[in-house]
Structure formats: C-alpha cells, structure tokens
Amino acid sequence: MIKNLFFNWEEVVKKCIDLTYEYLKENPKTWTEKKKQITRENISYKIQQFLFKDDFRIKPPGTIPDELVADMLEEICGMDSRLRTSQQKAYNQQKQIEMKMGFLLELYVLSNSFEFGWVQTGDCIRGVDMLKKTEDGSWFELQIKNSNNTTNSSSAGFIKGKAIIWHRRNAMQGNDNWNYFPDENVKKKISENGFKKFLINHFSIE
C-alpha cells in the first residue's frame, strides 16, 4: 500500500520508525506492547505491518445470514421480502467497507501530511495515530477517528488529554470536519471528495 502512495516510500517508512522510536524513548509508558521491549526492531515490525497492508477487497460473505433477523426486519420494519437477498449482501458489504475505512483514512491523511512533518505510528503508541515534532522540540500528537461514535485500535488504554482527537465526521449532525483538521497546511490538501476518490482507487470487489 505504502509503495503506491509515495515514490520515496522507503524514506517515509524510515521516518515513521525513527520518530516513533524517539517519542517512545521519551514516553515509554505509552508503548502498546507491554510484554516486549521498546526497541527499534519491535517498532519497525509493527509500523511495517501497518503500512504494508494491501488487501482492500470487498469479499463474498463467509457466513450464512441469520434469516430470523431478516424476518424481523420484514415483519416489524416493513422491509420488502423480495429484496431480502440483496439487502443481506449489501449489509455485509457495508460492514466490510466500514471496517477498512478507518485504516484508509489514516493513510489518506499521511499521504497529504508527510511533507509537513507528520508520521504514522503504526499502533505503537496508546491513543496516538500520528506524530509531528515541532520546531521547539515538542510533540504534536494526533488521534484520527472516522466518526465521533467509533473507536480505533489506538484508543485502547487511551490517556485523556494526551493527544488531539480529530473526527472525519460528526455522526449526530452528519457533517464532515475536514475544515477543522488541526494543521493549517494539511487542511488545505484534504477533503471529503478527495477521500472519496482515494477510497474508490483502493477498494475492489472480489
């Protein structure tokens, strides 16, 4: 995946590893692998596992739908029984897309923010998806969420107040938050339409 986003992908991976390692040496309690030491090798493994994911196929259902659920939707909610099969298929596809969107959102942001100093931490730091080291040597920590009613892997054991949390969309109001991204340079390059094109370019159906 990362190779398709950056011509200098090796430099990108190296910087992600370097800054994450530097941050964890200063903040060891945020390390997500309590049974492993904070080493460059361990950090490199996790970050590369994250960045080199490349399977974004929407696959056929691996399980049989619960027909009783469909019965209730038709009896209680008035759904058309003639559309049962297509609705079950659509629901399965919807869940697959939702599960992969959060990861792709982080890569979309990285592809538009690396030039401004941002790196991906690859699930190495609790509550932090992306990092930037500022000119004064302090850290700008960011947690990215697809919606304000969802969680992501970095949220486990999250220390409130440690990082800025940015949501792509507000689930209650239905509006997006691209204009509120907490970096002025990056904000000019990202948008809902841009993310939509990014998703279309990376999703495929099996």
Rg on CA atoms, Å: 19 Å
End-to-end distance, in Å? 18 Å
SSE order: HHHEHHEEEEHHE
Counting helices, strands and paired strands, the structural category is alpha/beta
Low-pLDDT regions: 152-160
User: Order of strands across the biggest sheet?
Assistant: 2-3-4-5
Strand content: 15-25%
* Number of strand segments: 6
Keywords, separated by commas or semicolons:
7 helices, 206 residues, two-stranded parallel ribbon, 4-stranded mixed sheet, alpha/beta
Provide an overview of this structure.
The protein has 206 residues and is α/β, with parallel strands linked by helices. Helices cover 43% and strands 16% of the residues. The protein has seven helices and six strands; from the N terminus they run H-H-H-E-H-H-E-E-E-E-H-H-E. It has a four-stranded mixed β-sheet, sandwiched between helices. The chain has a two-stranded parallel ribbon with strand order 1-6. Strand 3 (128-133) and strand 4 form a beta hairpin. Helix 2 packs across helix 3. The longest helix has 30 residues, at 84-113. It is elongated, with a radius of gyration of 19 Å. The model is unreliable at 152-160 (pLDDT under 50).
